[in-house]
Specification:
globular, 5 helices, mainly alpha, two-stranded antiparallel ribbon, 200 residues, 4 strands, 46% helix, two-stranded antiparallel sheet, single chain
Length: 200
């Protein structure tokens, strides 16, 4: 995995340029598809699939959990995760009436809707990422302000869209709207699946 992770690090300036030029946000936005420098080259509505940064962050954090390599964490893993978290804590929209954040103008891979909010796939990966960033800031003793912002987001995190016991890929979809298993696949690596929902 080292080659992939170092490629992400090499692409970090391009991903930060994406965040700045496409969203007017700090941090880094790794697109669904990019050129070798990390710059966006996704087509159409798939530009709003913002899951790549959080998805890679899960694997980056797993690398640390398996190796406990603090030097690698400081030099490769954390710089990417820090900028991914910075992007999302700024991009999430605060809803004063609910006292919650929501992920708007975003979409789940394989579902071509922009009007629906809170894509489960991205939210589950992002939740894991924000928790990992908080832990990493403690290990490295840096970026406590970012850790506080991540905690605030997690304390006011949107609930996953549901129809009864069914988790929905996006808020606002009809029940049983599943056309691709990837739309919910974040629940397993991120430990977001509760077997008590459907014991059978």
């Amino acid at each position: 995995a080292d080659g992939a992770f170092r490629t992400l690090l090499m692409q970090l300036p391009g991903a930060m340029r994406n965040a700045r030029e496409l969203y007017d946000m700090p941090g880094a936005c790794y697109p669904l598809t990019a050129d070798p420098t990390g710059l966006e080259n996704t087509n159409g509505a798939y530009r709003f699939c913002q899951n790549s940064g959080p998805e890679w962050s899960v694997f980056l954090w797993w690398h640390y959990l398996y190796t406990r390599d603090r030097d690698y964490l400081r030099q490769v893993t954390y710089p990417v995760m820090r900028e991914v978290a910075t992007f999302f804590v700024n991009y999430l929209t605060w809803h004063e009436d609910e006292q919650l954040y929501h992920l708007e103008i975003s979409q789940n891979p394989e579902l071509g809707y922009i009007k629906h909010t809170d894509p489960f796939y991205t939210l589950s990966l992002l939740k894991y990422t924000l928790k990992a960033v908080i832990e990493a800031t403690g290990i490295l003793d840096i970026d406590q302000e970012l850790a506080q912002r991540c905690r605030h987001v997690l304390d006011h995190y949107p609930t996953y869209a549901r129809h009864g016991a069914e988790i929905s890929p996006l808020r606002g979809l009809r029940p049983n709207h599943m056309n691709h298993l990837r739309t919910l696949s974040g629940m397993f690596p991120c430990a977001e699946f509760d077997p008590e929902i459907a014991p059978e």
